[in-house]
Amino acid sequence: VQLQASGGGLVQAGGSLRLSCAASGRTFTNLGMGWFRQAPGKEREFVAAISTRGISTRYVDSVKGRFTISRDNTKNTVYLQMNSLKPEDTAVYYCAAAQTYLTMTTAGQYHYWGQGTMVTVSS
Question: Are β-strands 117-122 and 9-12 bridged in parallel, bridged antiparallel, or unpaired?
Fold first, then answer.
């Protein structure tokens, strides 16, 4: 599976961005998808996950109510809509795919990773 993330950039606090992750190489509907992020000097952390059909989603507490994960199985793409961004959201964001229909929250449960896209939120 190849994953290509895009949509990162520089935004002011309170602003919005939408990240996209296009998948290829395997049947997308068999893959649970997730977003992780890694801030400078910190470990990679789970952000959001979505099940194969988009029925189930999970979020880290710090983004609940601000971020929304979704997927379009006709386009083999998963999205992360980020609203009300805060400086502490600044990080490299990675999309990941797991060979499961479940929503996984641990990096080790994912089999494939994209290259990352940088999100910088200025105060």
Answer: parallel
Provide the residue count of the chain: 123
What pLDDT score was predicted for residue 92? 98
pLDDT for 79 equals 98
Cβ atoms of 77 and 71 closer than 8 Å: yes
Going 44 to 46 to 50 to 52, the CA torsion angle's sign is positive
Spans of the chain, pLDDT less than 70: none
Backbone angles phi, psi at 95, to 5 degrees: -95, 155
Q: Give the contacts of 64 (CB within 8 A, at least 6 positions apart).
A: none
Q: Could you give the CA distance from residue 87 to residue 20 in angstroms, rounded to a whole number?
A: 21
